[in-house]
Fold:
Amino acid sequence: MENRKTATMKDVAALADVSIATVSRFLNGNLDRMSSTTAAKIKDAIEKLNYVPNSAARQMITKASKMVAVVVANIDDYFSTELFKGVSSILEANNYTGVLFDTDSNPERERQLIQLVNDHTYDGLILQPLTESAATIEADMKRDIPIVVVDRELIHSPWTQVVTNNYEVAKSTTSHFMAAGYTHVVVLTSKISMASTREERYAGIKAAASHVDVLEVSEESYNHTQVHQKLVKLITETTEKTLVFALKERWLLEFIPSLIVQGYIDHDQATATAFSDTSTARNIEPRLQLISQDPYLMGASAAEVLVDQLVSHRRPTQDKIIIPATLR
Amino acid sequence: MENRKTATMKDVAALADVSIATVSRFLNGNLDRMSSTTAAKIKDAIEKLNYVPNSAARQMITKASKMVAVVVANIDDYFSTELFKGVSSILEANNYTGVLFDTDSNPERERQLIQLVNDHTYDGLILQPLTESAATIEADMKRDIPIVVVDRELIHSPWTQVVTNNYEVAKSTTSHFMAAGYTHVVVLTSKISMASTREERYAGIKAAASHVDVLEVSEESYNHTQVHQKLVKLITETTEKTLVFALKERWLLEFIPSLIVQGYIDHDQATATAFSDTSTARNIEPRLQLISQDPYLMGASAAEVLVDQLVSHRRPTQDKIIIPATLR
DNA sequence: CTGTTAGCGCTTTCAG
DNA sequence: CTGAAAGCGCTAACAG
Structure:
């Protein structure tokens, strides 16, 4: 039990007085091809020796690990973690395990992780990419395993993509508020050009709104009160009714509550909406109408596509799956 | 490039016209033991063949994967993800990679994951356990790899534990509010007996407060308005000043904002505090005094201990590391 | 029902 | 400076 060298199949075979082939069969569940006496002896030996199969050796032969890498942009985002839960649910039902990696919104890290996944025996990859270029990823993923892209769109993607209807829902939401008289839209967002998701949302808003202002906030460093003041200014310096449209839940949570408390967001002269994946904001102010994505479903869908490729060994059948977000 | 069988070291050796031993040396950075001509030839061949080393084969020999499993209780918690980031920062500086697994607060899943980690060639494990019993874990982890426990305490732990000073900070916080006249404490929490962390926090509160009520909320299913009403009742039915003490950030975020809006939490007759890891609550109401843990530091500390064991091959030197939380 | 044997792709002595 | 060869622990024919 102490520091004994870890037992191998050979040790088990010796103790059970059978051949290693029989042990292997036992391990792989071919119990029908063996007397119950033998099976019992092997079972005993395994327990006695505290034997645990060496997965590396097995992988080397079977060329499969039953593990799928899930690489997300930021595990601090509820979106990413919920996505992973959706992925895991499907994977596990199919006897695979998902392992989660975090690029931390860092393109350099994304490269490293893709190389890591490439180097290790993962059977598949589900990726929420930072890059917009499929070519870059292909260059690093030399091994030929199934890949599914989620959330962000890639240029010339050879892989199936699972995305939200960002453009459409941003547009229809904006129209909805326009109809209610909010003709002035203030877009509150991280640097738009950093993610395809944001670009599409922004495009959707512009397609519907007549008067759009943009307030870009740096994810890492920003001055809270300064942004706050700019928001107040944008809301008050016009006679139009203003809709503050946060492209990301975080910005809603950071700035809208104080604007509400201070009376700027009064749901009359000004209101707010956002892409929001949790129920936190709604708990704070139930009157907010927000756009909800379904990251869990997106993950599950992505995993389904991946598993299909894994078991069928065929190329993706669909190139884009859209999981709609809804205003509610 | 298409469906060509993945190249092996043998192929590289053949193309470069050297032995596989030389290729192996090249791969492992022993460039000093080879002429630069040879190195160049090999480099060429590798690129031409799109060769990527088979990590399973390597692991089989070296018995190391340079990967550490991090098993957390719930990746939706900011605490868990921030912990992972702390872990990763240290791991990566030491040339290891952290991979994240989620038990989803499900003891059954925890067992499965521990077995999974046991079966695969992870070099170490950082665990935020659900179980309180070290024995259970030891039974499943037959392979003898270094383990570090974080956040929750284990009974009779053979491994180093990295924890917060839950008891002390809960007690001192309660005292702090007692001194300000809040003699009635309402503890808002998930089922206390489910986690050692909560038990300690609760004990700390009881040690300092004279009049304590407990409101246990089920993580999965609970009636928002019903809990809300109970809170209101508890606050108003006494003449004492009340402190609502949320043992977890989530409950603060779920219930306190509406209590503030409705004027129940007025920072006079009633106030609130909580263990809180993000800045969301403070953005909502800057006057709240909250207890902040440092999950990132906890993760980093745990990883440091682990790496130390990994490289030194010796048993843990400390049995408990306390990362204090602070009220601010 | 069970054993023998040939590798999987790589690292690592040990010789040159 | 480079190569030959012996495994690492396991699976999968192929025999019996």
